[in-house]
Amino acid sequence: MESRRNRARISLAVLTIFAIVTVFAVRLVDIQLVQASELNKISNDKLAQSLIKYGTRGPIIDSNGNILASSVERYDITVSPRVVLGDHGLTDKVINAMNRIALITEQDPATLISAITDDPTSDFAYLTKSVTLDVFHKVRDLEVPGVFFQLRPSRTYPNGAIAGNLVGFIGTDGPQAGLELTENECLKSTDGSTSYEKGEDGVPLPGSLVTTKEPKNGGTLQLTIDRDLQWYVQKRIAQTYKALGAEWATAVVIRVKDGHLMAVADYPSVDPNNVDGVPNTALGSRAFSWAYEPGSTMKAITAATLLDTGAATQTSHVVAPGRLYLSDGGFIKDSFSHDDLRLTLTGALVYSSNTGVSLLSKKVPASVRRDTMLRFGLNKETEVGFNGESEGDVHPVDQWDERTNLAVQFGQGMTATSVQMASAYQTLGNGGVRMPVTLVEGCTWPDGTVTDRPKTTGTRAVSESAAKKTVQIMEQVVNHGWASANLTIPGYRIAAKSGTAEVAENGIYGKKTVISFAGVAPADNPEYAIVVTAGIPNKLYSSGAIASTFRDITSRVLTTFRVTPSTTRAPELPLTW
Amino acid sequence: MTNLAYAPLPHRFAPRPGIELVPRVDRRARPRVAYAVVTVTSVLVIFALQLLLSIMVSQGAYDIDTLQSKQKELLRTEQALGEQIDLYGSTQNLAASAAALGMVPGANPKFLDIGSGQVSTAPRLLDANSCGGSCTNVPNALLTGLGQPHWSQAAAEPTVHPESTTTTTSGTDSLPAPVTH
After folding, report:
1. I need a labelling partner for A546 at 20 to 30 A (CA). Which of A212, A239, A403, B16 fits?
2. CATH code where residue A84 lies
3. At residue A194, does pLDDT exceed 90?
4. What single-letter DSSP state applies at residue B173?
């Protein structure tokens, strides 16, 4: 009897325990498996703190490693009006705190007060944006409750307007212009993210830090530009611009042996730190984007064409009339009135005779002349592919009328950019081989690999002898032309050609001009080609006005790159007969 | 025929196993106290160690946190200083500082004749635009508000004068290339 009751009691106990265990097991499965993800999320939301890990946008540097654009940290100061105002509202203490912040951030205290009183229940408002570390520290040290700080990755351009036309800038919506825009693939960074569980005091719990995505830094973009030369060239053309009352001015320095751009200057041009400081038309690079009728600087290309085809030699004779009449009764004339001049090809360039060059050009078929121009890089974008770059225009031969057929040979009726002209002169200096125009030396990624290496294969435009003879002809322009006094540089042989192009308005050529000088130095072994251009000057219309600009820039190029002085004399070529 | 003849012998012929008296086990005998003490102490020690370890790890977390924020702060400071160096090293700042010291850029290449010890160049204004590095044609908005170097206040006005020339050259006829002996 006794043992039976015991057995029943034991059975009951076992059953009860079993039931309880079952309940727990079911609950356990429910929590651990069925509701697991939901509960984890709720717990994470309460504990986990997620952070953006900012990648750093890559810097832009010049050929010597000087920083043209770099990424910096700036801080936004934010506020929680609800916390600041609390239960007591806008107390003297709050006003006092805002006054002290305003003193540091150099703001009007009223702005700060209105930021917190506009929506007193809000938890977020900006006090100020993009302050420096210094300001951030000072405001933080005030320890105002309810005032917070946010990191804002920003961009700075320590050299200001130097190469600002090329580097471009970054607006609130990302890259806006120049290389910042077109080389974004190299420069851009990718933000990562990380999360940790925080304790009550905000300290990350040990072992809870989880990086869900590593940030990726951008690559370093190296340009072919030389910062200090670029500065000088920009400064010099700015002076020219002001002296001439021009609407714009550009200058391009290109290395002859490989087509690398040493300086590409525009005026006016932007200081990327202060984009609002210039009109919208000055935000890019006119040297790349503005095609104009180059004028007589094209005569060097014509001379090379004539020499290359064998249609003329340096001393070929031509009788250049003051006016060359066309079948429609119109005429081509020279910049100065004269009777018939008995010129050589060399003389036609030295005196910049449109009529002489026109008559000589007639010996070469139009299609051959145009093809040669195309081989010099005209009528198509350069290899740089700059943002907004222009192709220029050399119309197909079947669109050339009688006047255009001749005028293109002295740079009217066709257009080219400053960089295209520089590339054409690079070709002349390089023995007739045109090298790809290069602005970017490469993009170095954080892991050390380099991409975007420049192309190194050139194409022949004219024969070596034609190119060399053309340079000799241009040397006569410097030594015997009317601008000689403003062109020579002691110690060096210089070859250059002037250009004074008339600007067509509504199809009619008026008083407006584009004046330029283009050349190579040293003439005996060309290392650099330089093109200087000023558009629509209102004081002096002739290219003579910028001969000294060309000389000063060339002189600076020769000294900057320590070019060996010439050791031989220039050849003397007859100009007349 | 039967194999009964080979059948084993019946059990009753097997020898009986010996039966012994087993000493009685005292069910109420108590386990020794020492065992309990050792067990409980071990558990306590383990708990204590775990607690200590946990405290150390937490302390480590705080240390790491402090050091990391210190590192972050230092990196920020380094970056801010680097930014200033870049700014002070900007061409505009250097040019303006040089101009403040009265320096003007030379325009022409100059040649030292080793034979005569004379320097030759062409006659020209050192700086035709007489602004030296002080022209603001190539602006840099970041430099406004940047402290000027301490010497700039005391510096003399830049002076521009024609360079004295020892050799006057014209373009073609004479190349004043150095003559070495």
Report:
1. A403
2. 3.90.1310.10
3. no
4. T
Provide ipTM, 2 decimals: 0.80
Q: Which stretches within A188-337 are classed as H helix?
A: 227-244, 286-289, 299-309
Inter-chain residue contact A488 with B171, CB threshold 8 Å: yes
In a domain, A219, yes or no: no
If asked whether residues A249 and A144 sit together in one domain, one would say no
CA distance B44 to chain A (A): 25
3-state DSSP call for residue A331?
Answer: strand
Burial of A279 (0-12, 13-18, 19+ CB in 10 A): exposed
- In chain A, which residues have their Cβ closer than 8 Å to the Cβ of B120? 490
Residues A457, A311 within the same domain = yes
The pLDDT of residue B164: 42
Which among B61, B79, B170 has the least Cβ separation from residue A72? B79
Residues A350 and A463 in one domain: yes
Burial of A345 (0-12, 13-18, 19+ CB in 10 A): buried
Greatest Cα pair distance in chain B: 153
Are both A388 and A278 inside the same structural domain? Answer: yes
- Min Cα–Cα distance to chain A from B55, Å: 11
pLDDT, greater one: A172 or A356: A356
Q: Give pLDDT tens digits for B9-41.
A: 555 555 666 777 777 766 666 678 889 999 999
Last residue of one domain, picked from the residues A116, A139, A156: A156
Q: What is the pLDDT of residue B122?
A: 56
At B171 the pLDDT is 39
Q: Does residue A500 lie within any of the structural domains?
A: yes
Of B87, B169, B171, the CB nearest to A479: B171
A220-223 and A60-61 strand pairing: parallel
CATH number where A480 lies: 3.40.710.10
Question: Are A161 and B90 inside 8 Å of each other by CB?
Answer: no
DSSP letter assigned to residue A485: G
Domain that holds residue A115: 71-156
| Residues of A in Cβ contact (< 8 Å) with B147 | none
Q: Which of B79, B138, B169 lies at the smallest CB-CB distance from A238?
A: B138
Question: What confidence score (pLDDT) does residue B134 get?
Answer: 56
Asked if residue A256 and residue A142 are part of one domain, the reply reads no
By mean pLDDT, which of A161-170, A201-210, A492-501, A548-557 is the weakest? A201-210
Residue where a domain stops, chosen among A130, A156, A182: A156
Contact B139 A67 (CB under 8 A): no
Nearest to residue A531, comparing CAs of A416, A379, A434? A416
Percent of chain A with pLDDT over 90: 61
pLDDT digits (tens, 9 = 90+) for A313-330: 999 999 999 999 999 888
**Same domain, yes or no: A239 and A140:** no
Q: Which is more confidently placed, A48 or A339?
A: A339
Task: Confirm whether A94 is domain-assigned.
Answer: yes
- Residue B130 pLDDT > 90, yes or no? no
CA triple A281-A286-A288, angle to 5 deg: 135
DSSP string, B16-48: PPP--PPPPP-TTPPPPHHHHHHHHHHHHHHHH
In angstroms, what separates the C-alpha of A204 from chain B's closest C-alpha?
7
Percent pLDDT > 90 in chain B is: 18
Would residue A510 count as lying in a domain? yes
**Interface check A160 vs B, CB under 8 A:** yes
